Amino acid sequence: MAIRPFTRSFTQQEPIPEDAIAAAVEVMQTGRLHRYNTAPGEESQAAALEREVAAWQGSRFALACASGGAALRIALRAAGIGLGDTVLTNGFTLAPVPGAIVAVGARPVLVEIDENLCLDLDDLEARIARHRPAAVMASHMRGHLCDMDRLAAICAAAGAALIEDCAHTQGARWRGRRSGSFGLAGAFSTQTYKHLNSGEGGILVSDDPDFMARAILLSGSYMLYARHGAAPEESHFQAALLDVPNQSARMDNLRAALLRPQLARIDDAVRRWNARYDAVARSLARAPQLVLPHRPPEEGFVGSSIQFRIPGISTEAARHFVADAADLGVELKWFGADEPVGFTSAHHSWRYVEPQALPRTDAILAGLFDMRLPLTFTLEDCTQIGEIIAAGAAHLVPEAHP
Ligand SMILES: *Cc1c(COP(=O)(O)O)cnc(C)c1O
């Protein structure tokens, strides 16, 4: 039976909701796009977003930033991390994460991941003992949460600040608690391919008032920090006011206006993503060659992308597998490629990081495939995509194991 090719785009997002467009147009009509340019008594869109994010997240404070990467850099600096410090992070994450660590003058040390694409917590403990890091930047890459209770306990015992990179877990939970609430701070991205779409943008959340005062000053608040929507009291700013360097990484009112109506609907988006994830996963389950990451019951994940492994697949076979899927319209990302393609997430292609041996991570990435699940896909689309991949897997010649 001939397989019907898939013809839709893997990078097409849903349109911005009409009420968000209307709010953005209203901001443009006033001309007050800068977050501190407010009429008397007016709450800016950026401040309102911060207030609403903090209420949604269940955090005391929130800061709207220019990007997720900017939020990560600000978090590190606000945590006092800089020149000479070591920061541990996942060996499998996106380039802005090691980039943020290097940007503040710190040294990234990479930690192995496990078969479920989570931070390997045994390796984390071993590397903490060896490197005495000032912080752990745990990246929940592709939405996979490790045992967050154990991670938080390990960091607390080591006296290392835990900063969560939640670019792929906005809306996800561990034992009911929102991702981003387990350590000193959580950083989110509102870049187009994440869970809220303002083109570019980021949000930092924390319960620590002194940390957040420094973060707000770092973001470039000048003496206008009182105009923030979820900020600590004045007294927390006093100690740092003239000492914290301005990093100019503010969010503007236009993007905040686009985000607020999307935040109000994010729980519905999560349900729709998970229905799509389940539809693909059901089709993939028919191919015994494909191994999906185990999702523990404590994890309330957001299925905005799906990953599977083909353990032991050769480079040659992986290339063919990806090419065959592409011929049928299915865009798979393969993390085992030698050369970085598109968005880079292989540690070998970060030359600004000291080369590090991560044999377990490399072995996992060699057989790891990944796919975005935009909400523009229907459930039928997802089933069809899963069937195309499962049929491709059926053609894989088993590797000769001597
Ligand atoms: C996108 C992303 C970031 C950074 O977000 P930007 O807003 O693009 O700077 C950080 N970590 C991961 C895992 C990401 O995918």
UniProtKB/TrEMBL annotation:
What residues make up the catalytic site?
Answer: 194 (proton acceptor)
- InterPro entries attached here? DegT/StrS_aminotransferase (IPR000653), PyrdxlP-dep_Trfase (IPR015424), PyrdxlP-dep_Trfase_major (IPR015421)
Which SUPFAM superfamilies does the entry mention?
A: PLP-dependent transferases (SSF53383)
Gene Ontology molecular function: pyridoxal phosphate binding; transaminase activity
In the record, N6-(pyridoxal phosphate)lysine modifications are located at 194
Entry keyword set? Pyridoxal phosphate
Record bears the keyword Cytoplasm: no
Task: Name the Gene Ontology biological process terms.
Answer: polysaccharide biosynthetic process
Task: Name the family the entry cites.
Answer: Belongs to the DegT/DnrJ/EryC1 family.
Spell out the protein name for this chain: dTDP-4-amino-4,6-dideoxygalactose transaminase
Q: What species is given as this protein's source?
A: Paracoccus alcaliphilus
Lineage, highest ranks first: Bacteria, Pseudomonadati, Pseudomonadota, Alphaproteobacteria, Rhodobacterales
